[in-house]
Amino acid sequence: MIRKTVLALAAALTALQAVPARAAETEQQRNARMEWWREARFGMFVHWGLYSGLAGTWEGKSIGGGGVEWLQTRVGVDTETYTKAAKPKFVPKPGFAKAWAKVAKDAGCKYVVFTTKHHEGFYLGDSKLTDFDGKDFTGRDLIKEITDALHEEGLKVGFYHSIIDWHHADYDFKAAKGLPYPKQAAEKATEPRDQQKYIKYLHGQVDELLSNYGKVDVIWWDYSSTQFDGDAAWGAADLIKEVRAKQPGVIMNNRLYRRPEAGFSGMGTHNVTDRMDPQYGDFVTPENNIPANGLGTVDWETCMTMNGTWGFSEHDKAWKSTEKLIRNLIDIASKGGNYLLNVGPTGDGTIPPESVERMEAMGAWLKKNGEAIYGTKANPFKESAFDGRVTKKGGTLYLHVFKRPDNGTIVLPVKAAKAVLLDGGKALEVKVDGDQTTITLPETLADPIATVIKVD
Prior knowledge:
Keywords: Glycosidase, Hydrolase, Signal. With about 450 residues, this protein is an alpha/beta fold. The chain is built from 14 helices and 16 strands.
C-alpha cells in the first residue's frame, strides 16, 4: 500500500487545498441543478463488494437476518481474516456492467447509484491511495466499467461512498461513537489512530472518483451518527466544497451529518425531518420507509431493498411482490419523492433473477404509465376519495386506481373537462356539478396493480 500512497496522496491533497471558496447558490440555481433528479422519480441502487461473494454465509452457516453487506462486523472478524475468505469468491464476469445498465434502462430507471466503497473499505476502482481495490484484486477498474456502461445507456451516474472504513489504519473507530466496527479488528488494533489522516485519505479518494470517470450526477454518502458527524468526523464542509468545485452539478444526500438541521431527528433511518438546510446536502434519505405525508418542500428519496437485505444473500427469499414495488413507486411519487430500489448482485456481478423479473415488470408498467410518474408533482389534495394515489403535472391530474370503487365512480373536488384511460386513451364519462367532477370508471380495471386515469 505504501508504494502507491505517499506521492499520490500528497498530490491529491495539494489540489484539494487549492479549491477556492464557492459563492452561495441562489434558489434559482439550485432548482436548475435539481431539476432532472426531481423529474426522474425512479432509480436503481446497487450494493456490490467483497461481501457479495460470501452471500450471507460465514464458515458454512447463514449469518441470519438482513444486512449481509455488514458481514465483517456481523461476524466480528479483522480485515485479514475477512479478505482471505471473501477475495476468492469475488470474481466479476465479463460484461456484468452492461447487464446492470440494461436491467436499469429496461426497468424505466433514470439513474443508478452503486457502491464504490462500502463500510468494509474495499474500493471497486483503481486507486492510487490504496491496494485494497478492484484493480489490485481483479486487474480491472470496476468503477470505470460500470460508469461507462451507464453512460452508454444514457443513465445518470450515482456513486455511493461509505465514509466509514473498517480497513483503513487511521480510521478512528474509538472516536466514531455510534458507528459499527468489527470486534476482532478493534481488539487487534494496537497502533494509535489519526482521524485527520483518514479524512485526507477520504477526500483524496473522492477526488479520484470525481476526476477519473467522467460526469458524476449523484454522490450518496453513508453514514454518520449523532455522536460523530460533520467537520470533526469527515471534514464535511470542505468535502462538500471540494465536490462542488470539481463537479458543480453533483447532487448529494445528507448523510455526512446526523442532526435536525441536516434532516435527521435521530439515529433511525426513518427518523427524517421535513426541514433541511441546503448547506448539509440536497436531499434526505428515509431507508426502507415511505413518509406518511411526504416531506413538504424538502427533497427526499426512499431507498429500499427488494427482499430483506442490501447485499446478495443466498438465504434471503423474502421478495417483495411486483404489486408492492409498483405501488410503492406510485405512493412515493404521489408524495413528491424518489424511489431508489436496490439490487444485490452475486460475487460475479450477476443480478439475481428474482430482481430482474421484478425490474422487468416495473419497466412494462412504466412503458404504459410513465407519463403519470416522471416529472410529476405530489398529490394536490389533502385526502384521496378512492383506493389509490394522485400525481400532478401542470394542469393534468393522474389517478392511480388500485381498486375500483363499489359504486364505480370517483368524485374530485375540481372542475375537469375530460378523463381518459392513460393506457389506450379510452374516454370516460365525466359530469361536472359546481366545483366537483364525477368520473365513471369501466366495469373492469385493465390493470389490477394500478390503472391510471388522466384528467384534464
